[in-house]
Specification:
By secondary structure, the protein is an alpha/beta fold. The protein has one domain: 3-Layer(aba) Sandwich (Rossmann fold). The protein contains 8 helices and 8 strands. The chain has an 8-stranded mixed beta sheet with strand order 1-2-4-3-5-6-7-8, with helices on both faces. The protein is globular. The two termini are about 15 Å apart.
Length: about 270
């Protein structure tokens, strides 16, 4: 495969993106995947997802969320702007991936037409939530698409959530220094909670994956989020691997690939 480096524009900043292009001698698929990572992480945390997919002929883009310093030193100047526009990076990455695909595979450029293409938007945790928001963009309306969300669920009811424990709060004193000040936990966590409760997408196909050992999602967080999404007329499936802790999303690569194989996209 070929890995190409580029940048995406966000406000007056740039954020990094990598494109994973299949080997031209292999069976190239009309499947395009756009991915991003979780809060305070970077694209390296899930880089094996697009690698595994590119090995079977799928073209992928993996971008860094702005203001995440492990990915790049871009800043988020205004959290209100971030809340409204961050998910639009999925479309920016998609456009560049399509252009790159046509350059690399001129004989297969018809794969990139809306009536031929299958599209996946996905990510881990915060990235998964942003991918769901992107599913509702009018720019993606004409495409056959699926969302894959790893490590995403409703906060537990009537118990102390991991985010509220003294130990977790102490770790955030370090982690919040890995992101732009506007993306501090006091801004991001309440927003994520609200988005999950009020997200306005409907008539979408969504696959959720969360491990039995994911302490952030908890024992029934994924199920309750699934019920909420289904209540808005989405078609939702889920998978619960035994080993997929929240801080090790790389273990989801095989499950992402297995899901796409199950629906006959690869």
């Amino acid at each position: 495969m070929k890995i190409l480096k580029n940048t995406l524009s966000y406000s007056d900043q740039k954020t990094n993106v990598m494109y994973f292009i299949p080997d031209a001698t292999e069976d190239v698929k009309p499947v395009f995947v756009i991915l991003t990572h979780g809060y305070t992480a970077d694209k390296s945390s899930i880089i094996n997802w697009p690698i595994r997919l590119a090995e079977v002929g799928v073209s992928c883009a993996l971008f860094d969320i702005p203001g995440h310093y492990q990915g790049n030193y871009s800043e988020v100047a205004d959290f209100e702007h971030f809340k409204v526009h961050a998910h639009e990076l999925f479309y920016e990455a998609f456009k560049c991936l399509v252009t790159t695909f046509k350059e690399e595979f001129p004989l297969n450029e018809h794969f990139a037409e809306a009536n031929n293409m299958k599209l996946v938007l996905g990510g881990h945790s915060l990235g998964a939530m942003l991918s769901l928001k992107a599913m509702g963009m009018p720019e993606f309306a004409e495409f056959e698409k699926r969302a894959i969300g790893v490590g995403l669920g409703m906060a537990p009811k009537d118990v102390v959530h991991l985010f509220d424990t003294p130990f977790y709060k102490s770790t955030l004193k370090v982690r919040e220094q890995l992101v732009s000040p506007e993306l501090k936990p006091d801004n991001v966590f309440p927003w994520i909670k609200e988005e999950k409760e009020t997200i306005q997408i409907s008539n979408q196909d969504i696959h959720l994956i969360s491990g039995d050992d994911d302490l952030v999602v908890g024992s029934d967080g994924m199920e309750r989020f699934m019920e909420s999404l289904e209540g808005k007329n989405n078609r939702v499936t889920m998978e619960r691997p035994t080993k997929l802790p929240h801080h090790e999303p790389q273990f989801a690569a095989s499950h992402v690939k297995k899901y796409l194989k199950k629906i006959n996209w690869i």
